[in-house]
Amino acid sequence: MPDRSDVYKQVIKYFDSLRTNEQSHLRQKREEVYAACPRVRQIENEIAILGITAAKNAIDSKTPTKDIVELKEKMDSLKAEKIQVMKNAGFDPDCLNINYKCEKCHDTGFIGQRECSCFTQKLVEMAYSSSNMREITADENFDNFNINYYSSQTAQGDIMSPKENMQIILSVCLEFTKNFSKKKDNLLFYGGPGLGKTFLCSCIAREILDKGYTVFYTTAPQLFKTIEKERFNRSQEEESQTGFSDDLQSVDLLIIDDLGTEFNTSFTSSELFDILNTRLINKKPVIISTNLSVNDIQNIYSERITSRIIGEYKVMKFFGKDIRLIKKYSYNK
Ligand SMILES: [Zn+2]
Hints:
With 333 residues, the chain is of the alpha/beta class. It folds into two domains: 4-96; 131-332, Rossmann fold (3-Layer(aba) Sandwich). Helices cover 57% and strands 9% of the residues. A five-stranded parallel β-sheet has the order 4-5-6-3-7, sandwiched between helices. A two-stranded antiparallel sheet has the order 1-2. The mean pLDDT is 87. It binds zinc ion. Zinc ion is lined by residues 102, 104-105, 116, 118. Residues 102, 104-105, 116, 118 line the site of zinc ion (ZN).
C-alpha cells in the first residue's frame, strides 16, 4: 500500500510540473508569435502601459470620465488589432492563453484552501495507479459508441432486438451522466462477454470525470486484492490514516467491473456487502458490470447482497452477439 503522505507529495509535484510545463509551452509559443509578427510584442507592451495608467486612474477619483472612456477605447482597439495581426499570420488568437485542464482551479489543484476535485481524483489515481485503476483511453466515449454493431433482428422468444435493447441502455447511461449531480442511481450491467458493458462503463467514467467528479474504476479481483492487502499488511500507525476503504466510500462514483471473476470467499462477500451498503446509505452511486446472470448472482452471493443489488439498482441485461467478433469480421472484409 502506498504511503499516503508520499502520494500527497507526488500529487503536489504533479500539479507543479503541470503548471511549469504549461508556462514553458506558453513561453515558446510567445517567442514563435513574436518572431513571426513583432507587432504583437509592441501591442502587448502598449496594453501593459495603458493598464498601469488605468490602475492609476482607478485610484485617482479626479480623472475625467472622458479620459477613462478614451483609454478603454484605445485598449479595445489594441486588443482587436492583436487578434487581427495574429490571424493574418496564421496563428490562433487564443494560443497565447493558457489552456487549463481544470477551469475550476486553473491547474493549481486548490480552490482557496480547499482541494479541487481534480486534486482528489489525481490523489486516488496516483495511490492506486499501479495496482488498481482501470485506465480509460481517449476513444472510450459516447461519440464512439456504435449502436449499429447490434443486430436489429429480434430472436425467437425475445421481446426486442439487441439494437433496441442497447438503445434503451444507452439512454439510461446518458441520463445517468446528465443527472449525476441530482439523481443517485445505481446501475447493474449483466450479460455475456463482448456486448459493450466495459466500454459503456468507461464512457460513463470519462463523462463523470470531465464534469469534475471523482471516479474509481476497478475490476472485482483487483478491488478485493487491494482490500485484502490493506487489511492484512497495514501497520498500526497506518491504521489511523485514510486508507483504501475510505477512498472507496468517498469517491463520487465507484465502478466495479467483472463482478464474479474474483475468488469468492466469505471475506470478499462481507466486504462487498459493506461497500455496497455504505454507499447506498450515503447515496453514492455504484455501477456494477458482470457476466453473471441474475440467477448466478443469487446463487453466489448472500441474500442481503442480492437484495441490495436487485432492489436498489437499475438492472440492465445485455444480449446479442459478441460485438468484438463482429468488429473483427467487418475489419477483415
Ligand atoms: Zn481543479
